[in-house]
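Record pair follows.
FIRST:
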Amino acid sequence: MIAGSIVICTHNRAGLLARCVRRALDEARACGGELLVVDNASTDDTPAVLAALSAPGLLRVVHEPRVGLSAARNRGLAEVQSAVAVFLDDDAVPRPGWLRSHLDLYGAPVVACVGGRINVQLPVARPSWLTPPLEKSLTAYDLGEPTRRYRAGDEYPCGANVSYRVTVAQALGGFSLLVGPRGRRLLQHDDTDLCCRIERAGGEMMYSHEAVVDHHILADRLVPGWFLARHWEHGQSGAIFHLRNFGFRRALGRLRWHYRPHLLRLPYAPREPVDAVRLLAECQRREALGYLVGLVLSLPRAHLLRRDMTTPARGLAA
């Protein structure tokens, strides 16, 4: 079995971190791997929590001063001591066998990425308005059984449960600093951007139904306002992603054919009792508006967005 390093990037999540780290340490022990925690400029009790969890020879902690998940993940890629980096969110808890299920799929050198299943765990009773389409905003992810190669039309893996062959991810430029969460901003598409480059370069991606994590959702996210903000930021980062990877004409085409119907909808301000159908429609409208604004704001720097897209695809068979 190929060697793997678990990477947890964290920023001011001291209250959640211990549970995630303890379970990740169990997985690392079972596979002879390591756990690397990237402290992304935390200002809370994160250092103290990690010091109390000390596991010499198994747990390492590094500090990344640039705030942003992509910066932290790139630091993780640079620091790991294994061929595969397996990323786990600090609010996700892996189930037994999770790490092995990732690593078992890297037998073929062409495999560059493996995504796993993500089950959402809510801290309170499910709100009546939280429908399956909205649950995707909480990174619920399941392509169904069995474990298989990714096919055209599949959603790319989610960052809460994904692994990469390190040489491939680095050869393709790593995670773009233009997308992904940064501080209070909920920008997304960081893993989507890297997976798109992997696929374009001929790397193979696998889905592991057995590599399962439970994603524990914070209670303050279970309000309509959080979902509205999440969709707005998804639209903005989506515009950057499409300009970077497909150019202006394709990005404009997505606005015209995918988002235009949502732009024409009437606004909805959620009030109790929340209308589930109208809330979903408003989230889609906010995402469409975010995409439009993101496209307009990004056009003056479109050439800069695509600057790193010509990075040579070295290392795909390393």
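SECOND:
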Amino acid sequence: MPESSEADVITCGAIKLELSKRTLHRRDERFHLTPKECRLLEVLLRHKGQVLTRQFLMREVWQTDYVADTRTLEVHVHWLRQKIEDNRSSPNYIHTVRGVGYVFRPASPELDAVP
């Protein structure tokens, strides 16, 4: 199997996402992601530090403008948090912006540093 190219890998501190393999590496753990989990994490990582609305995320990940029910988005965020957060009730990476959406922002500079 060929090695991943730099364009295929997105890294933020201890988080590394290999797009072609849909693989998330977190410290010494490795997780296989569903296509939607991978796409959601990719969008969050590519817009690190930016508050992304639910509408933007639904359009980018699910190709829909329908936002009357964003439960699917919330469930996928929950699944990603299970994989990357040490404590899901106090997230270090994926933060909820009440009434707006989500932002991927390491809570401390140490989390953003490459291990």
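COMMENT: The domain at 6-110 is CATH 1.10.10.10 (Arc Repressor Mutant, subunit A).
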